[in-house]
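User: two proteins, same treatment. go.

Assistant:
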Amino acid sequence: MKRYVLAVGGSDSSGGAGIQADIRTITSLG
């Protein structure tokens, strides 16, 4: 079963927020 996620975010140079944090969260959820 394919799951889809739509993430709309900007980039944060510290890596603590933005699309980088979204990618980490989505990856951890499987």
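Protein 2:
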Amino acid sequence: MRLQVPDQAVALISALTSLQPSPDSIWLIGSRANDRATDQSDTDLIVFGFEEFIRAAIAQIAQPQDVDCLVVFNGDDYRDPWQEKSGSLSNLEWRQIDADSARYIGTKWMPDDESSREFGALMGDLVNREELAIRLWP
């Protein structure tokens, strides 16, 4: 698998790592970490940091385009500094495998094109599956 991190994600990572306090680590998740990215895919990051880090990110960094960024604080809670997304890392069943990789349970919408055509409405299922996370920094 060839890891491709788009320029806007690289720029965000650079900005995040220059903040004080700096994050503990930054991980790539989602389609780009699991070799399913398309031209339309965004970049999904999990950043391990602190509540102070979230405040610094909001104050000093503009909302990134095409990058979703979840900051884990207090060891388990996470939130996106720029969007209304929050949750618990334990719900993702996050487990670090080694220094550079982790596994978690990701939820993905899987459209059912045949049923959508038959019933004239968007049909599909939310599917949970084990996903790979790749450490990008440090």
